[in-house]
Structure formats: structure tokens, C-alpha cells
Amino acid sequence: MSSSRHRSTGILAVGGGPANLSLAALAEPIGDCAVSVVESRTSVAWHPGLLWGNSRLQVSSVKDLVSLVDPRSRYSFLNFLHEQGRLYRHLIANPHFVSRKEFDQYFTWAAQLLGAYLDERVEAVEHDGTRFVVQTSRGRWFADHLVLGVGQVPCAPAFTKTIDSPALWHASRHLDRGLPVEGKDVLLVGGGQSGAEVALDLISGRTGLPRRLTWVTGRDGLSPLDDSPFANEWFNPSYVEYFHALPEDQRAGLSGRQLGAIRGVTQDLLAQVYKRLYELDYLTTAQFGHRLLAGVELSGLAEVPDGFRGSLLDTVSGAEQEISADLVVLATGFRAELPAFMEPLGGRLPISGDAYEVERDYRVRWDGPDANRIYVQNGARRTHGVGDPNLSLASWRSATILNSVLGREVYSLKDEDITLSVA
Ligand SMILES: Cc1cc2nc3c(=O)[nH]c(=O)nc-3n(C[C@H](O)[C@H](O)[C@H](O)COP(=O)(O)OP(=O)(O)OC[C@H]3O[C@@H](n4cnc5c(N)ncnc54)[C@H](O)[C@@H]3O)c2cc1C
């Protein structure tokens, strides 16, 4: 493809993750709403570095790209199974959970049907007075509106960023970048869901067993994810409406208190890790040792000729201890980041803290014409609540954006019942 290629679209959806696939799927039946999805990867793989064969979808499969706002859409997960001729077998094989791998297949199927542009990275966004001019790795787009759906980026302690070693990797690259662990001294940092998934993989024997695993978490322990019914109501559109209307300081207070609903580890995974450690400790002759350190943070790390030396800070006592390791895995989470490709628009988009200012309908404030709008998906946790990155709200948010762009109620988003009093 020539780099001078020029194409035009109504909405350019930057990023081909579930958020923008949902937008394109819901836009398709609307006659006057062209959405073009541009994805930098060669496939729409869903967090491929953490996509184990047996990892479970953490939400109901009804929370797919479309069903919660348009259950009759051909882009539903159910229709994917139907078209693949595996609906009956799926129901027999998966009475309790759906695998993330199957949802990844579903997203890939939807992206193909929707004609997503793969292997095309958005590099710079400008505005020529009447439309957005978007430079990509494959050419140029002219667009009336932009929807940013670039997801979150891995985050890691600053002192690790200067270390360039294949023996240090972020959990997000575990399956494609991780080295074999057989006989190694492994340090795993982070006690959230991805930390626990990596831990289970490290002790599974997939690439051999480590000689020693030191697993540190800054939290008080390996806490369960709060997946209880009332916490799940925070992922209800009516709760988002309530949350958004609160003053900034009250939203911040609530967000801090609700982290258990997004930062813990599923009970089932905790049980699997515990069981596997028990097996290794008592039921095998494996030469394997482990230390789980809670309330402990990695406070420094350096590469040395035979691996790594680091320091661990006990956040309870304030004491520091040295540690050495052959391999280090950082399961230190993800965070939203302002995309560098928006920099040419400079100060035209006011920024609050580390995020754009986002309206109730996910419109980003900017000083350009109203005929050219910018929306953001999965970048408004501060204003829209803890549910923002989750699949639960993806189809509702996409429908909200489409209604807003088109200035009419294409999708009927009536108030959802909720038991929590949010009057
Ligand atoms: C391991 C893991 C498992 C998860 N499991 C669940 C779950 O079971 N249930 C749930 O509700 N949530 C889950 N989540 C939360 C997750 O945030 C959402 O599921 C979902 O991936 C969010 O979709 P998104 O489209 O906003 O972002 P992403 O899925 O991150 O997609 C963003 C896309 O934008 C692309 N992109 C970035 N920059 C550019 C650019 N400049 N040009 C073009 N393309 C670009 C990226 O390549 C990426 O494909 C999980 C998260 C992780 C990390």
C-alpha cells in the first residue's frame, strides 16, 4: 500500500479493541454513519501476552460488542457461535464460563466482517479547519469525527525503564516475550489479576519449574476481586449517570473506595494458585521454593553480570532488603495515557490531571468546530467511574457516542433499573 493513500470517513475509530469494534458493529445498520476502524497490530488480538488457553472471561458473555443495547444485532457473541456451527457444543462445553480465547476469536471474526484496517498505526492528528487530517503508517485519512479507543498502556516502576534486558518483561508480554523459567530464580512483582495469572503459569511447568519464585505485592495480601452483586451495580449505566453528576472530589473519593471491584484476583484463580503451590510443596519432589511477600514493593532494580539485584521495601515496617534474581516479571498493571498522536492538536484539548476533559456523552472538550468532534472510549474513569475499562459498559458507551454524533436517539438507552439508591 502506498504511503500517499488518502481516504475519507465519517468517524475514524482509532484502535481496534473491543471498544471500537462495538462502535463499528452498532454503527453498521445505521445508514448515514460510516465508521472506519484502524488498528496498529496485524490482528485484533485481545491482550495476546496474557491470553492463556484456560483463562476465563471475567464478565457474562452477554456483555459482548452489541447485545446489551441491540440483542438482535448480527454481531452478537451468540451469532458468532451460531455462524461457526458450534452453538450447541459451546453450551455443553461451557456451562459455567466462557474462555477469553473464545472471545478473542469472536473479536477477530467481528473485525473481519467490519473490514477493520489492520497493521495501520495512527501517528499524528491535525485539523485543517473543516475536518481531521490523520497521518497513519499507511497513508492519510480525512475524518469528520474521531473516536479514540487506544486502550491502556503497561505501567512499570520508573527505575526499570532504563533496563534493556530480555530477562525483564512486563506481564502484558509474558506469552510472547517471556523466557523459559526452568531452574531460574524468578522475581514476580504485582499481586493483581495479571500477577496471579503469571504466577500460575510460572508454577505450571509450561516452560519448566523455577528454582525459586519470589512473588511480591504492595497490597496487604492477595485480595479477591469484589465480584459480588452490589459491587457489580457500579457497572450499570444508571450508576455511570449518577457518578458523572457528582462533584469531582466526591467522584475521587468513591473511585478510591471501589478499587476492589477492579484490582483484586478472581476467587477461582486464587484457589488454583494455592492448590498448585500445595501440590508442589507436598505432592511432588520438585526442587522448587517460593516466598510470597505482601505489603512489599520493589523499590530499586539494577542489571548485574549474573542477573538482577534489587531492593524490596516493606511498606509496613519501612525495612529494606536486597534481592537477587535471574528473571524479573513486572505485573504492575496498566494505565490510561494521552495518545502521542494527538500532540499536533496541542493545547486545543484542555487536560485535567492526566486525562482529557470528557463530557457525559464521552465527548472530549476541544476548541474546534462542533461539526468535528472527538470522543474517547476507555479513557474516562475519573469522570465515569470504575466500570470504564470493563466490557460491561462497552456497547452502552458506543451507543451513547453514536446517539451523540448523530444528534438523535438511534439507540434507545432508557434508564436501567438499579437497586443502589443513586437518587
Ligand atoms: C489480560 C486482560 C484481561 C481482561 N479481561 C477482561 C474481561 O474478562 N472482562 C472485561 O470486562 N474486561 C477485561 N479486561 C479489561 C480490558 O480493558 C477490556 O476488556 C478491553 O480490552 C478494553 O477494550 P479497549 O478497546 O478499550 O482497549 P484494548 O483492548 O486495549 O484495545 C486498544 C487497541 O488500540 C490499538 N492501538 C493503540 N494505539 C494505536 C494507534 N496509535 N493506532 C492504531 N491502533 C492503536 C491497540 O493495538 C489495541 O488493539 C482485561 C484486560 C486485560 C489486560
Determine the number of helices (DSSP H or I, runs of at least 4 residues): 13
Q: Which consecutive residue ranges, at least 5 long each, have pLDDT under 50?
A: none
**CATH architectural name of the largest domain:** 3-Layer(bba) Sandwich
What Rg do the Cα atoms give? 23 Å
- Alpha carbon gap, first and last residue: 54 Å
Helical coverage, percent range: 25-40%
Task: List bound small molecules.
Answer: flavin-adenine dinucleotide
Number of domains: 2
Q: What does it look like?
A:
- With 423 residues, the protein is of the alpha/beta class.
- It has helices at 18-27, 77-83, 87-93, 100-113, 174-177, 193-202, 229-232, 237-245, 248-257, 260-263, 267-283, 381-384, 394-406; strands at 6-14, 35-38, 122-127, 132-136, 139-148, 153-154, 168-170, 185-189, 212-217, 289-294, 296-304, 307-314, 320-325, 327-330, 334-335, 351-352, 355-356, 374-376.
- The strands form 5 sheets. Strands 1, 2, 3, 4, 5 and 18 form a 6-stranded mixed β-sheet that branches. Strands 7-14-8-9-10 form a 5-stranded parallel β-sheet, with helices on one face. A 3-stranded antiparallel β-sheet has the order 11-12-13, with no helix packed on it.
- Helix 6 (193-202) packs parallel to helix 11.
- The longest helix has 17 residues, at 267-283.
- The structure holds flavin-adenine dinucleotide.
- Flavin-adenine dinucleotide (FAD) is lined by residues 14-20, 38-41, 47, 50, 57-59, 100, 121-122, 149-151, 194, 334, 341, 377-378, 389-392.
